[in-house]
Write a sequence for this structure.
């Protein structure tokens, strides 16, 4: 079955609490979009999000002085739209992230993923981590070759301008998903951005297994109803 993952892009820890609270009770996983304001600023304005706008609250979580909202019931995935993931990636693991997405276009992306793989394979087994590699819609499947054995799933961006919610759908993402599915029949393909009631079924038909959804769920009058509607639409014929 196709999984629906609510996504939040909070500016502060307080906002994260509110956003996660809107899906708590029916969603088991939440993606938190993390934007440092540098990763994509060369082409458009990409504002900083938590924790880059609210570092003190994040540091307390990393140091285990407090926890992520509903951390005992929610699995957290961090989508790191940051310039140098190697420098920060372990902080997000220590904060409670069990799924970490690193963007292929980020400087040192392979090193960041390798760090996660090394930690996962360490003898103490302190962290359970799965790794995702994010691709822009205009990238080619060949990009995966330089990240061989470093990722567990691929996240295809369904929008051209990352770092914002509510961006228009990028149709070329469908072709990328189709090519990925053809070349890697068993790979998990997650789509983030541009997922709506109008695009969900097309993305699944192209080969997507998971759909990450932001404002369509979180901005809805009834988030659970919006979540269920998307789940039903995505799983027609599954």
């Amino acid at each position: 079955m196709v999984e629906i993952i609510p996504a939040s892009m909070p500016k502060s820890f307080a906002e994260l609490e509110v956003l996660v609270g809107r899906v708590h009770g029916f969603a088991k996983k939440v993606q938190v979009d993390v934007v440092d304001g540098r990763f994509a600023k060369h082409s458009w304005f990409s504002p900083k999000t938590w924790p880059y706008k609210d570092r003190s609250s994040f540091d307390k979580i990393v140091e285990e002085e407090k926890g992520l909202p509903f951390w005992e019931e929610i699995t957290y995935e961090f989508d790191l739209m940051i310039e140098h993931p190697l420098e920060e990636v372990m902080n997000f693991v220590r904060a409670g992230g069990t799924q970490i997405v690193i963007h292929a276009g980020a400087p040192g992306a392979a090193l960041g993923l390798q760090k996660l793989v090394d930690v996962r394979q360490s003898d103490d087994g302190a962290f359970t981590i799965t790794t995702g590699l994010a691709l822009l819609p205009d990238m080619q499947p060949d990009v995966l070759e330089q990240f061989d054995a470093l990722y567990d799933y691929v996240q295809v961006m369904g929008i051209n301008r990352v770092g914002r919610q509510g961006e228009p759908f990028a149709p070329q993402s469908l072709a990328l998903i189709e090519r990925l599915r053809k070349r890697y029949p068993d790979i998990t393909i997650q789509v983030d951005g541009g997922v709506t009631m109008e695009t969900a079924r097309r993305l699944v038909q192209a080969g997507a297994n998971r759909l990450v959804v932001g404002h369509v769920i979180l901005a809805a009058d009834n988030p659970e109803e919006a979540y269920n509607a998307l789940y039903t639409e995505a799983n027609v014929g599954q």
